[in-house]
Fold each of these.
Amino acid sequence: MSTGSRNTWQAWARSVPPLACVSTREPSPDPMATATRLARAGLAGQYVVYEAAGGVWHFAAGSDVSVTADTGGVTARAAGRTWTSRTDGRPLAAFAGALSALRDANDEGNKGGENGGGRHFYGWAAFELAHLLHADPASAGDQPLLHALIPSVEVTLGADSTVVRAVDEAWARKVADLLAEPAAGQPAARDEPVRGAAEGIIAAGSAAYGRAVARTVGDIRAGLLEKAVLSRKVPLPAEHHPDFPATYLAGRRANTPARSYLLDLGGYRAAGFSPETVLEVGDDGRVSTQPLAGTRALGADPAENERRRAELLSDPKEIHEHAVSVRLAWDEMAAVCGPGSVVVEEYMAVRPRGSVQHLASRVTGRLRADTGPWDAFASLFPAITATGVSKRAALQTLARHEDGPRGLYGGAVFRGSTGGALDAALVLRTLIGAGDEAWLRAGAGVTGQSSPEREIEETCEKLRSVAPYLRFSAD
């Protein structure tokens, strides 16, 4: 980072107020519903609900302090002011540099006000960042690629307590008043249209997708790549207006995700149930990634689920798809971890994820002294299970055969800290909105053994993790 950029971000970071007001309350009997109720309250222009490991929900809100990066520059806001700097074609490095300035500027001010992990930030990374990291920079487009919120208030809803951290007493009182209110029913949401039309929504565009799968299989058989995770966009009818908090609550109660999130942040709205993490980095430098590849449906019949599970574990196409994903995840971890520290802790377990079951593995390692969480993110993003093998060739294939940019889909929603932790969920199984549009999207891993019919079926299986739980505004 240049001296000019460093001075810019230090000036910005000094303008970011610490979370000086801290209070602890009794635990919520239903932290998921409480977090959703806080999101619905409209406390600020931006909010995030992030379900972390261990059944802990985080709610963060604010609008005054943020960092946004695109291919050309980084813009940071705080205290009514704006700071900008060029990225020189490296938006992730510039974005990380801005956030790192918070560590030094706020450490002293946050003593007693933050937990031991430092100041937290919440954000997203768009899939098109991948083109700058691994493929063709010209394909990255001109839209924001990274956005982070440094909240004015943060609520952690754990099993033992509810902790509120806020920049001042006014923010603390707003949240305390909401937490003190009796739990109320959700506002009326109109779900009848989607109950009758969910399968029609899911099937939209499947024929065109099948043709794209066939073209991708041709690329693979021609030796251009081993695997591509080809996806299709499913726009929601324009007359429907999704209720994102109600969709999140209904969908989360029915799903079994690795992470979940509800947000209105940086131009995107989303309610999602992520089946895997892109990466998890602890304050101690331990890093892990969780590739999932290989899919079968998961329904209400235990005997049929077990039959499909056995089929999944013996299907050559699914096993090959999973194995090449784990191999590349290992290579990407080894690029940033200490020699000998990378291990496969779990291999080809079967994990339930809502309407499907997946082959799942976990690769772990220890970051080298000269690398940090954003170096690991740069190596692992986007998840190999959302792109393909090789990653560069897969990205080029997706650019040829998919219907426009992915945006948030296949990217990441993350929670990090100035202490070095970073937890990033892969954006799949998600209702996404921007402007007046809302859509679902789903993909399948295409290999040389793929058939269009099976890959269409797999996208439908995945869409059933979200589509039946769509809720719409009553007005």
Amino acid sequence: MALLSVIRRWHHRDQLSIREIARRTGLSRNTIRKYLRAGTAEPQFKVPERPSRLDPFAERLALWLRREMARLRKQKQTVKQLHADLVSLGYDGSYNRVAAFARDWREDYRRQQHMSDRGTFVPLSFAPGEAFQFDWSEDWAIIGGVRTKLQVAHVKLSYSRAFIVRAYLLQTHEMLFDAHNHAFRVLGGVPRRGIYDNMRTAVDKVGRGKERSVNTRFLAMVSHYLFEAQFCNPAAGWEKGQIEKYVQDARHRLWQPVPQAESLDGLNLWLEERCIALWKDIPHGIEPGSVADAWADETASLMPAGRPFDGFVEHGKRVSPTCLVHFERNRYSVPASFANRPVSLRVYPDRFLVVAEGQVVCEHKRIIERSHDGPGRTVYDWRHYLAVVQRKPGALRNGAPFLDLPQAFQRLQRHLLRHPGGYREMVEILSLVLHHDEQTVLRAVTAALEAGVPTKVHILNLMHRLLDSKPVATPPVTAPKALRLVSEPLANVERYDALRVDGHRENRHAS
């Protein structure tokens, strides 16, 4: 390129002869004449056609590439896999040659189909209250001093671009429903349409075109909030490009540096406050003012959220003979009357209810373990086993559910189990919580221990005093003066010594 420029400048500007230019450059005069006759500012070289080891396999490779274009993004084979298939057919060329062929073939295919290349999109426009977009992402936070991987739900209004973020330990149906409840609460209402990708928590099966087999519980939530669910085409993230872009921006605004919190609830509270604060700082870009200003205009167009959706997921379980139900590798106690019987678990993000015969039997705080190496944890409620120990009071000594009794009950148990019949008496005292407030029973037990009379009779007496709003401690009695003795008896042991001496003298006394 530089040499051609010099030749053209010497000949056309400096009027040097071809012979002189050939002498200065060392090129032949025919080469110089060819450059000057071409009349171009840069040389063009025709690449000679050379045979390639890929030529015998080119037609087959083109058929494979056409097949891959029709597949979903996650089902497509990579060029490395195609190269390995060609090697199994006898191809002994390099991977780079196959990659270059695939790149050229795709460019020709797009030109023939009048397709735009990646990175070219159509700008979208939304009316106030028309739509929101939803997506999941994975991020990290330090919770209780432990670096924890989180599943983060993102909801963004398409018109005002107001957004809300909520973090969970899992990406399940109950987490999805809870994220919508909190999002509509913070955003002040529900848009008329929700835009989603084909996530497994909403879509059970992707059909042709826009056909979707939608999860039943997800449809129940959509029906509850009265919005229309729209699902993007597979591998077409640009159809909800606002939330896709926001997921990237949120990592810089919220997750760098890594946030810290004592609990997941504390982290979500901070995320909610931080998102609302960012609305005021981020310019809208299209509408005048900030995101908060556009959101204030959009709230009037949103549908009222109403009561939150009861977003539980139900699982059928069978209670074991030890009154335990298994869920997510952990075990939870159930009242003994439901042992060996089927029950339902209504699972929420942070708890679950055990339901039988249309009634809530008990409730447990949900334990979510990230590690799958251990045997799981067992959560007991000693109240669930009272019906068993009433028939088998000896189980109190080594019963695992009774190792975590309140401190007052433990002190009473250590005292009673040292005496005959103490097991049954302890069971009868524990059973008082089935009919009375547990704190009232604990107050009576504590008062009996402090008085030094930890017996069932005394505890029942104190219980009745507490239930009747009477004082537990008996005040001292002050006798009136009329009842006092004029001459109070004195303790004198010498009288008994005199009787002993008289007896020694063989004196007879009436018995």
Amino acid sequence: MTATDSEDRAQRLARGAVEGRLAACAQISAPVTSVYRWENAVETGQEWQVLFKTTAARYEALEAHLRATHDYETPEIIATPITRGGADYLAWIAKETS
């Protein structure tokens, strides 16, 4: 998962990952309000969250893509392991990212 400050940027990150087979799917949720500390100040801003669905084998390549194309100096990049899921859906993710 990552977040960015515009819908257009979220679309570009999502599309690039799916086109590159780094993720089978990317879902954009927005807008969300983020409150965070940056450079000794508390900031508030709207962001668009992007949730990428990929395999453990493709994680490193997806992270490299996000670091190379994200506009934030320190982008949010968080991975949550899938502990269970529908076998057919997980097989689809594996197929689309291979």
Amino acid sequence: MTTRRTRPAPRPPEGTPPPAELARQARTVLADAVRLAHWAADGAGPGTAPLTSHALERAAAALGLTPAQVRAGWDRARLAGLVELHGDTVRPGWRLRAWERDDSAVLRGWVALFDAWSLVHAAPRGIEATTVAEAVEAVPQVLSLLQLSAGPVTVPALLDLLGQRVAELHEERCEVAYGPHLPTTPATGRAAADATELNALLLDWALEGLAAVGALTLGAGHATLTPLGNWAVWVKLEQICVAAQSPAGNIEQPAADMLLGCARLTPGPARAEYRAWLAARPVGSAVAELIAVARGEDALLRGLAFEALRVVGAPAEPVVRSVVTDASLRPYALLWLAEYEGADPDDAQEVLSREEATWLWVDTAAAVADHGETGLLVRHLDSAVQGTVPALLDEIRAVGHPRTVQVLVALAAAHPDPALAKAVRRAAFQVHTGGV
């Protein structure tokens, strides 16, 4: 055996407040959003979202807020996961229920708001969406400079960095002019001045948006990260460092290959690999890629994809919730949501109906049959909710899993009891021929 050195747990920069103090600051930033979420979710605005004109007026009167504060609080409540909309019905999010007792839930909610800063503060009108998107993509470099400076940074310095990063993005996308290189003319100089003016407008918008979510404070010609903002940027920089130290070397692989590479890892190293892979790519595209793999035919990858989504956490919730209606993903999605909302993993199975649990049993058996050992498939019988093999076979036939026949054939071949194996083979034949 060899002992592999593990990277020591990183420590926040000196001077970073403890989590309890950071959570207190996050609760202050989201105080109005929490009040509005309670008002909406406790039945004060039954059945409809509180941004209808009538509900907005009632919320403003009940909470002593202006209509503008109600709108802002509502946006923050949704983005921070304090409320969930199911059609026109408002339900409390799990974070709202845990808000006063769980500092980690509070910090995750604030980070979700921080990540969505560009939605909190409307972009300047008249600017193309692609230009705005470039500015949003360049902002992490601006935040890194603020974090590394550990103090106020002048707006001109931030503007210069933003302009450099936007130019790099253009170059990376090969957005260069074709044809002969002409000498600089007054027109090109004017174009450069226009670009600087546009970047200045976008920088002001970005700084105001980040200030609106409590990530930084603005002074006369300078900006400074708040303790919350400093901590959040440090966390994201650490994620990049983890990505650079991908323990099993799967960071550059597509999702399916990465998951297969993790299949024989124990849970701890597998989660480390998931984190490294996720930190190296935008969270939205990573979640979409994992869901696409889960929709495939390989049951092992389906289960592993949801294990990786557990590492993603809050940003994956809307996508996972959206696939609950997909028969092949529903059991996995329900278990994911139950654990995400605080259920013990050992008790999460209770959210599944008998049919859903049976479907999941077959899907897991398919993964074992494709990738596991014979003994594992036989032992998998013990995890069925039915308790007896005849009852299991009856209900397996009813759920209509596409791999039912293959699973039963593999189980019959693997089981050491001839009588039971014969019964399983008979069930496989009946499913195959449509008999009973």
